[in-house]
Design brief:
Elements lengths: L2 E4 L5 H10 L3 E5 L10 H10 L5 E6 L5 H10 L4 E4 L5 H11 L2 E8 L17 E6 L29 E4 L7 H8 L3 E4 L4 E3 L2 E2 L1 H12 L2
Amino acid sequence: MVTAKICGISTAETLDAAIAGGASHVGFVFFPKSPRNVSFEQAKALAARTPSHVKTVGLFVDNEDDRFVDEAVHWAELDVLQLHGNESPARTAHLRRFAGVELWKAVPVRTRADLTVAASYRDAADRIVYDAKPPVGADLPGGNGLRFDWKLLDGFAHPLPWVLSGGLDAANVADAVGITGARLVDVSSGVEDRPGVKSVDKIAAFLQSVARL
């Protein structure tokens, strides 16, 4: 069975679409540079609307403020922390212990060699998110609509359970899963009309494609 996370949710309408379509996870972004950034108040309202069988994920980027992370976890009743920056294994392990919730660590991928970084998080994270490496100088570490060569994952010995992200949409998710064997996929820009503006119809189409896998 393949499940899906819809990341960058910021409105009740798109949250409802994700839930209705069968998403296993929904993501809230706590990163001011992102067009998908939400306040604690927004996240709290959205989390209150999310049924318990759908897990809430908070995405953070190089946040060194433990109190901010702690407040986000409690305000939004987060089930998962997703670290999407250059967090070290030590920082990752610290936040996992500190927050007391499941932790996912993103690993940016462009070449096969990039995958080796995942092993350094074996004892620090619960799950690895393989995402496309952003261009040099990009403001956002993810959510750029870029994909990496999925064949790079062929035969790779994953150190942890993992998520496939980066450039996915309703049209290509079946190919992505067929090539990589992913069991959990993560989409953001692929279900948007423009950066930060999710489409109810695109969310529904993506989740319908996943349901057929």
